[in-house]
Design brief:
About 40% of the residues lie in helices and about 15% in strands. It has about 425 residues and is α/β, with parallel strands linked by helices. The strands form 3 sheets. Strands 3-2-1-4-5-6 form a 6-stranded parallel sheet, with helices on both faces. Helix 17 (about 415-420) links the parallel strand 13 and strand 14 (about 425-430). The N and C termini lie far apart (about 55 Å). The chain binds nicotinamide-adenine-dinucleotide.
């Protein structure tokens, strides 16, 4: 099939590449000229395991193309995926849909034969109705169909998630579009993905409801970790004991820093905004947002306590600064609030991240970057394990703590407290 992905970010690029690998002709379009020029040269704009080889393979066999020409790409395609950003509005909690509606107007100007127009971006319920209204201002309804097909991939596992999804959700009442899309996704369905056809509005809501539920699970276990710290119980035992119940499940039930990233913070706010608009009260999600916003200050208080409230001139190392492992995405990472607060108190911070130096910290005089783990850890008073990269899972802290009494604060509970105790390493973890 001939596909066009509008927006070549995490979602557009990964799904575009995967669709091309499944045998479709795909044009990935972006308004960012540099991104497209880089992609043509084989320079990949994001860190995502396995993505570079897949791009190279499909670009070479010409099933995958990159372009900045939206009109031409739409003309050449039958199925158009909208994959642009839907960030939180600058003044408010709702989703800023300006990128979506701009694209809808551009699509409208390029339709000459039947096209399926799909929102893969996460959009509030009724956005599909709005897109349809914009396009019908110039184009007959017979020439297009607007469908919701939310994307559930996770950064860091995006290719696996795309190829082996639990489900493919297609929101449309149009039989023709449903048939074409079922066919498009048939290689994934044959590998076990469940195909769910719903109304367009239901599909839009499924995405927000899923993200809000996962955010709730994380927040729930984070709050329980606070309790565990007071009663000499290890939160890891609680996660295992609860997670083995199939009704609950173990995923997203590990205590740690505040949830971040490009989705959960904005999507929880957006679904609450939608419920307010329709005069209902999603009180559970409201308290999840509040609790998560408070999480970094709880962890900071713990850091202060670990350092006996003596933060000034303390040398602190952060291992990992992105919002989670296996991604270079800094959006809403809890480091963005924790590091500046520590700097303000006089800490001297050095960090290491496998995806390199981050522009977000360049403005801070007392924040520096190390190109490798050992130099980042050496001679520090406190090492904070902030993300769960495999690179951080077998560090010989004993070697580093011989000359200097170093403290470890493991915000991801990677190490076993009993083992660290045996080695006489001063070690703190979450929820124990
Ligand atoms: P992103 O910011 O990484 O990429 C969006 C891209 O769209 C950018 O490259 C931007 O230049 C481009 N763009 C914007 N307007 C354009 C236009 N008019 N023409 C061409 N290109 C344009 O965003 P993302 O993280 O890929 O997220 C996209 C959507 O998918 C969001 O709604 C997000 O909530 C959703 N989503 C994201 C993830 C994830 O893990 N990142 C997972 C599932 C769903």
């Amino acid at each position: 099939m001939k596909l066009c992905m509008i927006g070549t970010g995490y979602v557009g690029l990964v799904s575009g590449v995967c669709f091309s690998d499944l045998g479709n002709d795909v044009i990935c379009v972006d308004r960012d000229k540099k991104k497209i020029e880089d992609l043509k040269k084989g320079i990949i704009p994001i860190y995502e395991p396995g993505l570079d080889e897949l791009i190279l393979k499909n670009y070479k066999n010409k099933r995958l193309k990159f372009s900045t020409n939206l009109n031409d790409s739409i003309l050449k395609s039958d199925i158009i995926f909208i994959c642009v950003g839907t960030p939180t509005k600058k003044n408010g909690n709702g989703a800023d849909l300006s990128q979506i509606f701009n694209v809808a107007k551009e699509i409208r100007d390029s339709i000459s034969k039947f096209k399926i127009i799909i929102t893969k971006s996460t959009v509030p319920v009724t956005t599909g109705d709005e897109i349809e209204k914009i396009i019908t201002k110039k184009i007959s309804k017979k020439l297009f169909s607007v469908v919701s097909n939310p994307e559930f991939l996770r950064e860091g596992e995006a290719i696996r998630d795309f190829i082996y999804p639990d489900r493919v959700v297609i929101g449309t009442n149009d039989k023709k579009s449903n048939k074409i899309l079922k066919n498009l996704y048939s290689p994934l369905i044959s590998k076990g993905a469940k195909y769910v056809n719903t109304s367009r509005r239901a599909a839009e809501l499924i995405k927000y409801a899923s993200n809000a539920f996962l955010a709730t699970k994380i927040t729930f276990i984070n709050e329980l970790a606070n309790l565990c710290e007071k009663i000499d119980v290890n939160i890891e035992d609680i996660s295992i004991g609860m997670g083995l119940d199939k009704r609950i499940g173990s995923r997203f039930l590990r205590a740690g820093p505040a949830y971040g990233g490009s989705c959960f913070p904005k999507d929880t706010k957006a679904i609450v905004n939608t419920s307010d608009k329709f005069k209902t009260n999603l009180s559970v999600i409201k308290s999840v947002i509040k609790s998560n916003e408070n999480r970094s200050s709880i962890l900071l208080k713990r850091v202060f306590k670990i350092l006996n409230n003596n933060v000034k001139n303390k040398k602190i190392c952060f291992l990992g600064v992105t919002f989670k492992a296996n991604t270079d995405d800094m959006r809403d990472s809890s480091c963005l609030s924790m590091m500046p607060s520590l700097v303000k108190k006089g800490a001297i911070i050095n960090y290491y991240d496998p995806t390199g130096e981050k522009k977000e910290f360049k403005k801070f005089k007392n924040v520096s970057f190390s190109t490798e783990i050992n130099s980042a850890i050496k001679n520090k008073d406190l090492v904070i394990i902030h993300t769960e990269w495999n690179d951080f899972k077998s560090i010989n802290f004993k070697k580093f703590s011989q000359n200097k009494k170093m403290i470890i604060f493991d915000m991801r509970n990677i190490y076993l407290p009993s083992k660290m105790k045996e080695q006489k390493i001063k070690y703190f973890a979450i929820g124990c």
